[in-house]
Amino acid sequence: MTSKDILTFTLKAISDRHGENTIAYDMQGYSILADYYVATSAGSNRQLHAIANAIIDAAHLANFNDYRVEGSSESNWLLLDLGDVVVNVFTEEARDFYNVEKLWTDGKKIEIKED
């Protein structure tokens, strides 16, 4: 499975659970850690976990089981490490506070088509 395939099912899962202000950066040639970085916001802690679970379910459907999740049930920020794709799911407040997107400005911002 390619990193682009992982990015595709990830973005669809986020869209299906109504992630907000989703951005993705192509970091190939800029980062040795991952090819793509994604960030999305959730309106509540409950939605944050629904988005993360949708991504995990999509990974399982794609027979992709090499992932890790950082954060807890009380977290306002979950990080899903899908190998070549790293996904950050935040509550709006946590995203504003941490502003991790500033770390990816060297990458190419990917246009995301909303469904």
TrEMBL record:
InterPro entries: Iojap/RsfS/C7orf30, NT_sf. Keywords: Cytoplasm, Repressor, Translation regulation. It is found in: Cytoplasm. Its main location: cytoplasm. It comes from the Bacteria. Coiled coil: none annotated. Interacts with ribosomal protein uL14 (rplN). Functions as a ribosomal silencing factor. Interacts with ribosomal protein uL14 (rplN), blocking formation of intersubunit bridge B8. Prevents association of the 30S and 50S ribosomal subunits and the formation of functional ribosomes, thus repressing translation. HAMAP family: Iojap_RsfS. Belongs to the Iojap/RsfS family. This is Ribosomal silencing factor RsfS. It comes from Lactobacillus bombicola. The lineage of its organism: Bacteria, Bacillati, Bacillota, Bacilli, Lactobacillales. The gene is rsfS.
